[in-house]
Amino acid sequence: MDPGEWARLEAAVDEAVRKAAATEIMPRFRQLAQHEIVQKNGPHDLVTVADRLAEEQLTVALTALLPGSVVVGEEAVHADAGVLGALEGEVPVWIVDPVDGTRQFVHGDPGFATLVALAHRGELLASWTYAPALDLMAVARRGGGAELGGRPLRCGPRPVDKVIDVAISHYDFTTAVEKAALSGLVTEGVAPRPCGSAGLEYLDVARGLLDAVAFSWENPWDHAAGLLLVAEAGGASGTVAGEPFRLAGGNALPFTAARDAETAAHILSLLTAVG
């Protein structure tokens, strides 16, 4: 696409994301009935009617904006794991998490987001991170930088001798093996804490408000938008194998994204491979 076409697509996606949030998510924020909340894989893994309807709306809108494209959405993959195969295909893929931070959404906490990323042949091209209850929209384009509210976004280097603040996989979602892999971060000079919405943790890294994240799971809808956002804001990421994160999976875990390469390397040196 030429720059003008990209600009029009970015604006149209921005509008589609805001519309899905305005029509399907925000009217249900702090208004959910009990029957509109369902457990997927246990009491901490929730889905709501807002997740499902927002993903359905975004699927229609995004594929119309880019004919021939497909959607890999969290709820679609939950219904049919085969949907993930599109990430290794030849057509452009929209990676969608309609409500990232569903637990926060259910509990009336504004710390949730709608995440959209565009990828082709495993390469991230653009991303949108929208926190509707906080009125924050961050956009990144591969090679074109990152913006928050239309203003350039930069991580900035971590101040010398600053304790490294790290958001890690939430204890409620981790196995004993994963906890052990992350336990290396419990050391002098590092301050790990359980993460909230992954998308908003990535946004805080890109804003320089958080030094790093370290995660032990690889669902692409949780990470695609944030990884590109951090990269385009000047940050760095990698897995414990010293390789870039692969959208299609099969990554050596845990992995990190950090505000600068030095911090990313230090975090990786403290982590232990899962398994």
TrEMBL record:
Q: What is this protein called?
A: inositol-phosphate phosphatase
Q: Name one GO biological process term.
A: phosphatidylinositol phosphate biosynthetic process
Question: From the UniProt record, which GO molecular function terms apply?
Answer: inositol monophosphate 1-phosphatase activity; metal ion binding
Alphabetical UniProt keywords: Hydrolase, Magnesium, Metal-binding
Q: Can you tell me which residues bind Mg(2+)?
A: E74, D97, D100, D222
Kindly list the cofactors needed.
Mg(2+)
* Enzyme Commission number(s) of this protein: 3.1.3.25
Q: Which PROSITE patterns does the entry link to? A: IMP_1, IMP_2
Species this protein is from: Streptomyces buecherae
Establish whether keyword Oxidoreductase is in the entry. Answer: no
Coiled-coil region(s): none
Q: Which reaction does it catalyse?
A: a myo-inositol phosphate + H2O = myo-inositol + phosphate
Task: Report the InterPro entries cross-referenced here.
Answer: Inositol_monoP_metal-BS, Inositol_monophosphatase-like, Inositol_monophosphatase_CS
Its organism's taxonomic lineage begins at: Bacteria, Bacillati, Actinomycetota, Actinomycetes, Kitasatosporales
The family database entries (SUPFAM superfamilies) matched by this protein are listed as: Carbohydrate phosphatase
